[in-house]
């Protein structure tokens, strides 16, 4: 069992928050690593100077964010894979935050560009085949007039495969989670027939760029596609699809 440098908490501040913070510090400074077992409740209570209720609440918080896992009958351990859950929470937080269109656009453009460079370098034949099969499915959904929610899920599935093609597990987890921040706006945009009709074609051009290992072609299609998404999001954009030209008086 790992030896931790724990200190007694300040009773005048949030006890649970202090316990969680001490575990975070132990992870950052390397005292705790994936797979390490943490001390049992009685030991934590004694060393922190807190009740079992406070320790249990802190552990539940750490479990919720994916940092620890409880193995029944065997104790509590630092999660062997703790990136996905915190990354997903970050994506949800960004989705809920009031964010300006240009900030969303800038972040997504940066993510897509970085993803493309990694995918162009590392994508395999199997990765490309998976993206092509998913794009076939997306095209069929568009052709049969499926609801925007299904189109959004297909769009997200394609981007998930694109992140997989980077073969970088850290970027992959963060990228997929951050796409959560764009999910609702993607669905809004896919209500527009022009956007949903073009999306599968954009995906095919992305696949071709990756197959040809062409960064320039990849950047071109991504910027064109995201520009349409941005136009849809920003009502002030001159070409916004919801804007109708004023009728001239007869």
TrEMBL record:
One Pfam family it belongs to: FCD
Region ranges (Disordered): 229-250
InterPro entries, per the entry: GntR_C, TF_FadR/GntR_C, Tscrpt_reg_HTH_GntR, WH-like_DNA-bd_sf, WH_DNA-bd_sf
Gene Ontology MF: a single term: DNA-binding transcription factor activity
PANTHER family: GNTR FAMILY REGULATORY PROTEIN, TRANSCRIPTIONAL REGULATOR, GNTR FAMILY
Domain HTH gntR-type: 13-81
Protein name: GntR family transcriptional regulator
PROSITE patterns: HTH_GNTR
Keyword Transcription regulation: yes
Biased composition (Basic residues): 239-250
Domain of life of the native organism: Bacteria
Annotated keywords: DNA-binding, Transcription, Transcription regulation
Native organism: Microvirga aerophila
